[in-house]
Automatic annotation (TrEMBL):
GO terms for molecular function: sequence-specific DNA binding. GO terms for cellular component: cytosol. Keywords: DNA-binding, Transcription, Transcription regulation. The keyword Transcription applies. One of its GO terms (biological process) is response to amino acid. CDD domains: HTH_ARSR. Transmembrane segments: none annotated. This is ArsR family transcriptional regulator. The keyword Transcription applies. InterPro entries: ArsR-like_HTH, AsnC-type_HTH_dom, Dimeric_a/b-barrel, Tscrpt_reg_AsnC-like, Tscrpt_reg_AsnC/Lrp_C, Tscrpt_reg_HTH_AsnC-type_CS, WH-like_DNA-bd_sf, WH_DNA-bd_sf. Gene3D superfamilies: 3.30.70.920, Winged helix-like DNA-binding domain superfamily/Winged helix DNA-binding domain.
């Protein structure tokens, strides 16, 4: 069930998504409130699970992770034990930034960030040594056109 948010909550969330490192005073000034009500609302949004955590976004290329692959996975395995092993393998691989189970022809899609094609191959070899996978297709992203974590609140 979606949380009930008023206009001030939405403004606060928009500011936090833009830059969670802002001070309470800065956020309060931008949303037209004072510090204490903003702090109370942020606390309530955390308690309600609307705000899961605060983190920083790093520049992958600045850190040498120049290659982004989207990996399409088809499996002929659908029993619980295989799925548990597969999910554990994905969670243990820091290269996997996102993993989604899909409806349709493809069972899973992964977003994998690595230094280069050789690093992707090492990831791929490690993954297929841990779990049986029917078919893997890797697509190299040539250009990131849009990437955001911001939700349209």
């Amino acid at each position: 069930m979606a949380a009930r948010l008023d206009a001030l909550d939405r403004k606060i969330l928009a500011e936090l998504q833009e830059d969670a490192g802002q001070s309470l005073d800065e956020i309060a000034g931008k949303v037209g409130s004072s510090k204490t009500p903003v702090w109370n609302r942020i606390r309530k949004l955390r308690e309600a699970g609307v705000i899961r955590r605060q983190t920083v976004l790093l520049d992958a290329e600045a850190l040498g992770f120049d290659a982004c692959f989207f990996v399409l996975i088809r499996t002929s395995e659908h029993e619980a034990a295989w799925q548990k092993a597969f999910l554990a393998a994905l969670r243990a691989r820091p290269e996997v930034q996102e993993a989604h189970r899909l409806a349709g022809d493809i069972d899973y899609i992964l977003k994998v960030r690595v230094a280069n094609a050789r690093a992707y191959d090492a990831f791929y070899q490690a993954l297929i040594s841990e779990v049986k996978i029917h078919n893997v297709t890797a697509l190299l992203s040539m250009e990131e056109i849009k990437s955001t974590t911001v939700l349209p609140v």
